[in-house]
Design a protein that fits this description.
This protein is of the alpha+beta class. Helices cover 69% and strands 8% of the residues.
């Protein structure tokens, strides 16, 4: 009987569709890896975009240095300031530097025909992503304009709303694609394994007829499955990285 079992095992090992099984699992794992990478990069892109949402706090003219510093201190202690900005959540832009930037971009020196610089000193303030909704931004604008020395608070409302809408849409699309891909992968692996076992049905039945125990029949398939999974995972990782 042992000789018969050994014969069945050799035959089984020789006829099992290794290449198709490993290829199918590798393809499935590679697809999961690609979509996983897309999700990671989309989250990083979302974080970067949200961290760069700013409001412009324009100051009144003829403020002293102390008054300007007090406004900056108040802004830094505000609840809505971004906590994750790596290059500073508040940036001071003087009216002179703003004028130079405008002239550089447009090629027109408005000071020549106006006789003065009508721009104002301003702070560019990065807002924490938790306060990017329309209601919170309106409250931030109202609260900040109450500060002594602040002339006006400005932000591009339509752009921020567009960012929020697009980020939400992209997130939902990616979640749907990932769910669809996971379902496809599960079905693919399931069908591949079923077909592989189906190709061995006569050998399995013959082993059952000669009295082979269940574990003796299952063991080679389990070991093969672990080996195929490890090999497919390694190949998928090499393809991804």
């Amino acid at each position: 009987m042992e000789a018969g079992k050994s014969k069945f095992r050799k035959k089984k090992l020789g006829s099992y569709p290794y290449v198709s099984v490993v290829f199918s699992i590798t393809l499935a794992l590679f697809a999961i890896g690609v979509f996983g990478t897309l999700v990671i990069y989309s989250k990083e892109l979302e974080r970067t975009v949200r961290e760069n949402v700013k409001i412009q706090v324009y100051l009144k003219n003829q403020l002293t240095k102390d008054q300007t510093n007090k406004i900056q201190t108040r802004l830094k202690s505000s609840y809505y300031i971004s906590k994750t900005a790596t290059d500073g959540a508040i940036q001071f832009v003087s009216k002179e530097s703003a004028a130079k930037e405008f002239i550089r971009e447009t090629g027109e020196d408005f000071k020549k025909f106006l006789g003065e610089n009508p721009l104002r000193d301003a702070y560019l303030v990065r807002i924490d992503p938790a306060y990017h909704d329309k209601v919170s931004l309106a409250k931030i604008k109202k609260d900040t304009e109450k500060l002594d020395g602040v002339f006006q608070v400005y932000y591009v409302e339509n752009v921020i709303e567009s960012i929020n809408d697009n980020v939400t849409k992209i997130g939902l699309i990616l979640i749907g694609l990932v769910a669809l891909m996971l379902l496809t992968v599960v079905l693919l692996i399931n069908n591949t394994v079923r077909l592989a076992l189906f190709s061995q049905r006569f050998i399995i039945r013959s082993m059952q007829l000669v009295g082979a125990k269940r574990w003796f029949i299952q063991r080679p398939f389990l070991f093969q499955a672990m080996w195929h999974g490890a090999l497919a995972g390694l190949i998928a990782c090499l393809l991804l990285y």
